[in-house]
Amino acid sequence: MSLLPESASFEELVQDYYLAVRGAGLMLSALDTQLVTAWAQEGVPFEVVARGISRSAEKALWDARPGEPVLRSLRACRRQVETEIRKYRDLSAGQGEEAAPEVKKKPSRSWEEVRHARLCTALRALTERESTLAPRVHRLLDTVLASVPREPAAMDQQEAWTLLVLLRALPFTERRTVWREARTGEQQLMTARARRVSRRFRLQAAVRRRLDMKET
Questions:
Q1: Residues 6+ apart with CB under 8 A from 172
Q2: Cα 79 from Cα 27, distance rounded (Å)
Q3: Residues 132-162: pLDDT tens digits?
């Protein structure tokens, strides 16, 4: 999700992603830095925190005034990020541990399996709303989504690719509208890397909004 080097720290990845999604700023405040440090101590993958940030930003995106940052501070994402952290930890608990033979428990699903299942459910619901997209959706389910990713980064890539395929399946005039919507409010005072991350976030948000798939 980030374009920083693989050697970048968790804190650097979170700051880079937040500022790109926010669309403004060069560094975090002292309070936001403390929050990132606390999240780092949770020991969850960067993608879990990034998902919380992107979900918070996406909810705020459509209410932001032109020229205003999508988020005023990283603290505005705290509730959603900590919800994602809790989900990840709850779903990861017991993964890889062997239960006693006499205890028969329903196998728990991983964080990636839950996200994958929700995405597939949202796509099937999409075919009922927009029948013209049904062939493309069924192809996605049989190919891109045929297997469940085993790590958060791969799940992010799978979801991003799915949304891009759906965008390409829309008529040209609708694709152009989505692209224009994604570029609205784009800040010029950003590095090329941050601009790419920001555009990708806004484009995926615009596609979900167009297809009414905001809760995947």
A1: none
A2: 21
A3: 999 999 999 999 999 999 999 999 999 999 9
pLDDT digits (tens, 9 = 90+) for 90-105: 888 756 555 444 444 5
Helices (H), 23-94: 30-40, 46-61, 78-92
Which of 76, 84, 14 minimizes the C-alpha distance to 52? 84
Cα–Cα nearest to 17, from 87, 81, 112: 81
Please list, in sequence order, all residues whose beta carbon lies within 8 angstroms of the beta carbon of residue 145, skipping any fewer than 6 positions away: 116, 119, 120, 123, 158, 162
- Matching residue, tokens 């029948």: 131
Rounded to whole angstroms, how far apart are CA atoms 36 and 53?
Answer: 12
35, 78 Cβ separation under 8 angstroms: yes
